[in-house]
Specification:
Helix content: over 70%
Strand content: under 5%
Order of helices and strands: HHHHHHHHHHHH
Number of strands: 0
Number of helices: 12
Low-confidence stretches: 1-19
Length: 245
């Protein structure tokens, strides 16, 4: 693309941002269409608008962080999320802002997880956990943090801690969700994966069977989760038969 065309495209983008009633909508659409480079360009144009507020800047940094994470630009993503965090900390404290700070810590943790820096990921998730425990109405967020921490502790082979946090998440979800909610299936599937890491295939099979049973009730039998779990169960059963023989 020539410099003239690039300038024209940038100008058109700026005009589109200025005219849009929802300055984030077009960028969000590009993101969900997996057009991440275009989404990044759009959100950057929003961020460069002179009249943008602090809360809008924070929202924009969050979107840029998510987009850069998809592009595997992990250092840029971390920079975006840290800028979002700094902006949120400047705003007057409210439950919504606190929730946004918690989610920002989680987003930073997820990027470190993608970088396979599990120690730093756990560090940020624990910051999120410390904050979420101060909010009485954040059960769903708390459950998500427990599950993500459990998966991180599985990766670092701290299985007692993983089990502890999976159990805490299940306790919350049992109070909030129906007994056959698909989220239970995912938690049991992750617990099965944890047991496989320990080579405890009998317990893993039990969790995988629970996951499949829930998904068969809450999803269709042809759903990709059910089909994938069927293959996982077959593999575990094969391992068990090898041990028995």
């Amino acid at each position: 693309m020539s410099d003239t065309n690039m300038t024209g495209a940038a100008t058109s983008l700026t005009v589109a941002v200025e005219k849009s009633n929802d300055p984030f909508g077009p960028g969000d659409l590009l993101y969900w269409k997996c057009e991440y480079e275009k989404a990044k360009e759009y959100f950057q144009a929003v961020l460069n608008q002179p009249a943008i507020t602090l809360i809008e800047s924070a929202r924009c940094c969050n979107s840029l962080g998510a987009t850069n994470a998809k592009l595997q630009n992990y250092e840029e993503a971390l920079d975006n999320y840290h800028k979002q965090l700094n902006l949120l900390l400047k705003l007057q404290t409210s439950e919504k802002i606190t929730n946004d700070i918690i989610k920002c810590y989680m987003s930073i943790g997820k990027v470190y997880c993608l970088k396979q820096d599990y120690v730093e990921a756990i560090n940020y998730y624990n910051r999120a956990l410390g904050l979420v425990l101060t909010i009485t109405s954040a059960s769903d967020l708390k459950s998500t943090i427990y599950k993500d921490l459990a998966n991180l502790y599985t990766k670092t082979q701290k299985f007692d801690l993983a089990t502890k946090y999976f159990t805490k998440a299940l306790e919350i979800d049992q109070q909030q969700l129906g007994e056959d909610h698909p989220k239970f299936g995912q938690t049991y599937a992750n617990m099965g994966a944890m047991c496989c890491r320990q080579e405890n295939y009998e317990q893993a099979l039990d969790y995988f069977l629970k996951a499949r049973e829930i998904w068969e009730k809450s999803l269709t039998s042809s759903h990709i989760y059910v089909e994938s779990m069927n293959k996982t169960i077959q593999k575990v059963q094969s391992k068990l038969s090898m041990y028995i023989s």
